[in-house]
Amino acid sequence: MKFLHTADWHIGRKLNGFSLLEEQEAVFLEVMAIAKKEQVDAIVIAGDLYDRSIPSVEAVSLFNTMMVEMNLKSGYPVLAISGNHDSATRLETGSLWLKTQDFYLQTQLSQAFEPIEMLDTQFYLLPYFEPFHGRQYFQDDSLRDIQGSMKLVIEKMKESFNPKKNQVLVSHFFAAGSTKSESETTLEVGGLDSIPIEMLLDFDYVALGHLHYKNAITKNEKVQYSGALLKYSLSEEKQEKGVRIIELSEKKLTNTFIPIKPLRDVKKISGSFKELTEPDFYDSINREDYLAITLTDSAVIINAIHELRQIYPHLISLERVQSEQRRRESTKKETNFIQLKPDILLKTYYKEVTDKELTKRQSEWLEEAIIENRTEK
User: InterPro entries under this entry (predicted)?
Assistant: First the structure.
């Protein structure tokens, strides 16, 4: 079995106000070219197809065009799941008849236990889910974190393992020890938020989504993120983007990363206003890239951002050296505060104000409110 592993398309995403639909369409064409060149048997998309639970009309139109090209015209079986940015309810519309075209789009925990069998491989499609979904499905109120639910999920999946076939898990979560970047939404509600890699080793390959960096996991080749197709924040400036080509033959794994070149890159540049407005400088770079500029001038420059945008149309930020240094110092001071989980932060505040702990029911309300707030975003 040979398949292409991708994830975190985030169709409809914007970068500092700039729509990325054009870039997303261009990078999709590269994905299709890779799939054809590598002669893959299927394409796996591990969640976050859209950037918002209620995507724009333009985003939906682009996704539909992509799937028509990938599945109907090119004939690739598609195995996809919903991520934390997707609306599971909206995304599952039409999923029953999509299966007749070998387009498997799963959005509910209950669907994950019946494997999709292709050639010599069983695919288990596990969409993003919260701890309360695990409690509901397994009818077990003791499941307070994602680890407890995942243990039962994997045990149930293993009941249908065919020893003569490969087993692939497709899912969307934070694996313990992974490296995050600024553009990912933190998944931390109600206790432990990560899954130990050791829990996943019964699968021959685990195709993950959620983290945008292809090297977020370095410990085990069997458990990997594909990374996003585009750079969605400045923190990803140095990251290589692309897809993975996975080949499984008699339980042997070949994992190859193939880079993709974006229509416009995300970069940082710095210099004085005079240097940045010199033709010798700006003709030496791609002015169409998404650029974050740091000015080294100490003097006030009137209308600097307006003037620079005449040369660099996709300018996403403008800072001075001094302000950037202050921002870094401020970030260090706020690190401890930012790293607190939302539920712990609110519980601590409640305790300080009332001198009481939240009741069990109040804790459940809090967890539900945090989940609802994230979904609305």
Answer: Calcineurin-like_PHP, DNA_Repair-Maintenance_Comp, Metallo-depent_PP-like, Mre11_N, SbcD, SbcD_C
